[in-house]
Specification:
7 strands; globular; Beta-carbonic Anhydrase, Chain A; alpha/beta; single chain
Length: about 230
C-alpha cells in the first residue's frame, strides 16, 4: 500500500500540480473520443501505450477483452458500451487484444481452469474464438496457436459488439468506426487489423523517401521479432 501512496504523491507533484487547470476542467464532464475494450492484464496500460490524456479514452477492461453478445443480457460491458455511444458520443471503438494473454491460454487449455469456475464460465463468451482456432490453426505449435487465438478473439469480439443495438445504430448512421488491434508489450509494437487485407499489420511499418523503408510485419504469420 505504501508504494501506491508514494506513487500518488509523485503524480500529484510532477503531473497534477503543473496541469491543475486541465484536471479541474474535467470536473465539468468528459468528452472521450475513444472507447477501448481491452484486457484486465496488469501488463496492459492503455493510457501509457496510447499516450492519451485523462478524459480522452473511455475504457472497458475484463479477462480476455471480451464483449458478450447482446443476447447475454444486461452485462457491465453492454451498459458501458451503451453509455459511451449514447451519452458520451465516442467516435471510435477499438477492441484491443494483447500478447501472452492468460485468458486465451485458458480458452485453449480448459483443463487448467479446474479451480477457476468463474473464469471458465466467462470464457463461454469466447467459444467462437476457440472454434475458429480449431478450424483454422490446429496444426500450429502452441506459441503460434496462442498468437492466432489472440488475433481471432479480437475479430470475434468485434463481431459480438456489432450485436448491440447502440452499436448497430451508430455504425448505420456512420457516427462511429470500429477497429481491432493487438498490443505486443514485449516487442514494443502494435498490430492493427486491416479489413481490406484481412490481416493485422504493425503500425511501425514505415516508408523511406526512396520507397524502401521497413517492411511491415503482418499476421497471420507468427508475430515474432523482426
Amino acid at each position: 500500500m505504501q508504494r501506491l501512496i508514494e506513487g500518488f504523491r509523485r503524480f500529484r507533484d510532477n503531473i497534477y500540480v503543473p496541469r491543475r487547470g486541465d484536471f479541474e476542467r474535467l470536473a465539468s464532464g468528459q468528452q472521450p473520443r475513444y472507447l477501448l475494450i481491452t484486457c484486465s492484464d496488469s501488463r496492459i496500460t492503455p493510457a501509457q501505450f496510447t499516450q492519451l490524456d485523462p478524459g480522452e479514452i473511455f475504457t472497458i477492461r475484463n479477462a480476455g477483452n471480451i464483449v458478450p453478445d447482446h443476447r447475454a443480457g444486461y452485462t457491465g460491458e453492454a451498459a458501458s458500451i451503451e453509455y459511451a455511444l449514447n451519452v458520451l458520443k465516442v467516435k471510435v471503438i477499438v477492441v484491443c487484444g494483447h500478447a501472452h494473454c492468460g485468458a486465451m491460454k485458458g480458452l485453449l487449455n480448459p483443463e487448467t481452469l479446474g479451480t477457476l469456475p468463474s473464469v471458465r464460465g466467462w470464457l463461454v463468451h469466447a467459444e467462437q474464438t476457440r472454434r475458429r482456432v480449431d478450424e483454422k490453426h490446429a496444426q500450429l505449435p502452441d506459441a503460434e496457436m496462442l498468437d492466432a487465438a489472440i488475433r481471432e478473439n479480437v475479430l470475434v469480439q468485434m463481431q459480438q459488439i456489432r450485436s448491440h443495438p447502440s452499436v448497430q445504430k451508430a455504425l448505420a448512421e456512420q457516427r462511429v468506426s470500429l477497429h481491432g488491434m493487438v498490443y505486443h508489450f514485449d516487442l514494443g509494437d502494435l498490430f492493427v487489423y486491416d479489413e481490406a487485407r484481412d490481416q493485422f499489420t504493425s503500425v511501425l511499418a514505415t516508408t523511406a523517401p526512396d520507397g524502401s523503408g521497413m517492411a511491415a510485419r503482418t499476421s497471420p504469420a507468427p508475430l515474432t521479432p523482426a
